[in-house]
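Quick one:
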Amino acid sequence: MKRIKPMSLLLIAVSCLGLALSGCGKQSDDKGKLEPTDSSKILVAYFSATGNTQKVAEYIAEVTDGTLYEITPEQPYTSGDLNYSDSDSRSTKEQNDPDARPAINGSVENIEKYDVIYLGYPIWHAEAPKIIYTFLESYDLSGKTIVPFCTSASSPLGNSASNLHDLASGANWLSGERFASNAAQSTIEAWLEGLTY
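Output:
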């Protein structure tokens, strides 16, 4: 019977360890990732005046492998426009005007190819900003699934999402979620993993 040299045993052990570790690496890379049927059909559309909603939207797009789209106003909001305690500020006037529809710069190309739309926005005066109304009224979203999410320092989601339903009445609306501006990625991911659509 031929004896295996100690050096050969060491090489075999190192090779086996390398294979085992490479397998573990693949598992940890995939852990926590959602596996939608077709990620190319997911759109993550968001409006973010101060960057808080953008952070959440970017992470949702990363986890779902969806396409990220920023809803950008033609006229950007200044810090004065966002002074919610000023009754003459642009944001306050828009939120108090049921017909306000701020213009959007650009549009989503081939929106018909998306089946699921994550729709993100900050809470302004307990509602979604009126630019979200503009976005929803700009497309035929019939048959699509819309998943709203919002960010705020303290205000809850409230009726902000349900008040948008009539603007895309042919869509399937899922319950929305509110996140704090400093929401942990694990919190966002737990919400995403609980969704079914």
